[in-house]
Design brief:
By secondary structure, the protein is of the alpha+beta class. The protein folds into three domains: 82 residues, Rossmann fold (3-Layer(aba) Sandwich); 136 residues, D-amino Acid Aminotransferase, Chain A, domain 1 (2-Layer Sandwich), CATH 3.30.470; 57 residues, Dna Ligase, domain 1, CATH 3.30.1490. It contains ten helices and 13 strands. Strands 8, 9, 10, 11, 12 and 13 form a six-stranded antiparallel sheet that branches. A four-stranded antiparallel sheet has the order 4-7-5-6, covered by helices on one side. The chain has a three-stranded parallel sheet with strand order 2-1-3, sandwiched between helices. Helix 3 packs antiparallel against helix 4.
Length: 297
């Protein structure tokens, strides 16, 4: 195949998007495909000029313009075959609050949540601590805080600029992340990872990219919990209509599992979770690229 990989230069997650793009290019070229990379918006015109020559376009945009569906809508307009979900799925899933409400309709637990509009005047009367404060649309590993009292809550909310705010009940104890993909045989999950943070109270940017990965432990010998996480993740994927591969984040309090969010373009650096899950499942780069190739779409 002749493949185009797209990155974007004004996202707060640009550095990771570039590393994801490089790793995706490596996986594609390992199995013999040719790859061109484009840095948007600077190279949009160059891509449009050549877009009909590509068998597949892979957007490696994290955050705005990618995970909100804009780039996939653009590719659909051009008639390109593209990886990841359709634009309406991205547009839903980047809105964490709306996604939470959506999956609650099918009986899946979510943390108690307060939603604040970015431009609204508000009084913070929230009293259930500890709580997690995070941007509703932005990456959860950036600008996310765990707070234990009212002054910290106000400060955390003020630190989130140009985004709506979510204040969520902090589900203590254990955190899990589930990779799910769709191929010709329907939806499947990859080996599940438990997140064991080393120094922070949650899995932030530093924990993801400035450690040796020792905080990411594949689940073993917990068949009932694994089955619940897998079954509920696949229920969400089917209900929402995800395509190709996504990653779903969960918390577990010893009794119930609580859905947090869907990542529709998961980070794909060599140290990212989805590539690790894929390799843990005993799958090759060739199988991954075949799974996203046009004949499977």
């Amino acid at each position: 195949m002749h493949i185009a990989i797209l990155t974007w230069w004004i996202s707060t997650e640009r550095a990771v998007a570039l590393r994801s793009g490089d790793n995706m290019r490596d996986w594609c070229t390992i199995v013999g495909h040719t790859v061109d990379m484009y840095d948007f918006p600077t190279e949009i015109a160059s891509f449009i000029e050549k877009h009909k020559t590509y068998d597949l376009v892979i957007p490696m945009f994290h955050g705005i313009y990618g995970e909100d569906g804009q780039v996939t809508a653009f590719l659909a307009t051009l008639g390109c075959r593209y990886a990841y979900s359709d634009f309406d799925v991205h547009a839903l899933c980047i809105d964490k609050y709306r996604t939470n409400e959506f999956v609650r309709d099918i009986g899946i637990c979510i943390p108690e949540t307060v939603f604040l509009r970015r431009d609204a005047d508000f009084e913070l009367n929230y009293t259930s601590f500890p709580a997690i404060v995070k941007p509703n649309h932005g990456g959860s590993s950036l600008w996310t805080s765990k707070v234990t009292e009212h002054d910290e809550l106000a400060e955390a909310c003020m630190s989130i600029i140009d985004d709506d705010i979510l204040i969520q009940e902090c589900i203590e104890w254990r955190e899990f992340t589930v990779g799910a993909y769709r191929d010709t045989d329907w939806y499947k999950t990859l080996p599940i990872i438990e997140i064991k943070t080393l120094s922070q109270d949650f899995f932030d940017y530093s924990e993801k990219y400035e450690t040796d990965g020792s905080n990411e432990v594949f689940m073993i010998w917990e068949d009932k919990l694994q089955k619940r996480l897998s079954t509920e993740s696949l229920r969400i994927c089917k209900y929402i209509g995800t395509r190709w591969v996504v990653r779903l984040d969960w918390r577990y309090d010893g009794e119930d599992i609580y859905f947090l969010e869907v990542n529709t373009i998961p980070w794909f650096t060599s140290g990212s979770l989805v590539p690790k899950m894929w390799k843990q499942a005993g799958k090759s780069e060739k199988e991954f690229v075949e799974m996203i190739s046009p004949q499977f779409q």
